[in-house]
From TrEMBL:
This is Uncharacterized protein. The lineage of its organism: Eukaryota, Sar, Alveolata, Ciliophora, Intramacronucleata.
Length: 160
């Protein structure tokens, strides 16, 4: 339970971040099997926006990952994102948690996806399709989260 790090019963990391001037916390990835309500609620209570990233797990690590489907990531991300929606990203009334400002669809696709720009664009577009269908299936209403993909600052030799 990581609440002992960020929560009021623990170290108060989110409160400390707010006290030193932060307005946003960026998370690299998440485990969609865990409930995120407590973290998102505490971030909201502290006045912090959250930028959450989808875990690398469905992209490159799990059995049946995007790697094994030619980087067609639709089903892997639809399933993972549906779990995220059910475990805190979506609140009562089928609206997004007010703390969740932006979702990073994939971290550093230029470093993780082999096969160059064609392959990482395929991964991103198919992941986006899966995410949008998960939102539709869940019945999301109201303002949607911003979407992003973070690329590395490294040179992409495959991109030349």
């Amino acid at each position: 339970d990581t609440a002992v790090l960020w929560g009021p019963q623990g170290r108060h990391d989110l409160a400390i971040m707010k006290a030193i001037g932060a307005n946003t916390v960026r998370l690299y990835g998440d485990d969609p099997s865990l409930d995120h309500r407590g973290f998102l609620d505490e971030a909201m209570n502290q006045g912090l926006d959250v930028i959450a990233g989808i875990s690398d797990y469905p992209y490159t690590q799990m059995t049946g990952s995007c790697k094994s489907t030619g980087f067609d990531c639709y089903s892997q991300i639809r399933e993972a994102y549906m779990m995220n929606l059910k475990r805190g990203f979506m609140t009562i009334g089928n609206v997004y948690s007010p703390a969740l400002r932006t979702l990073i669809l994939m971290n550093e696709p230029d470093l993780k996806v082999t096969g160059g720009p064609k392959a990482f664009c395929r991964a991103l577009v198919s992941a986006l399709d899966g995410l949008l269908d998960a939102e539709k299936e869940a019945g999301i209403r109201g303002p949607l989260v911003n979407l992003s993909a973070t690329f590395s600052f490294g040179v992409c030799p495959q991109c030349e």
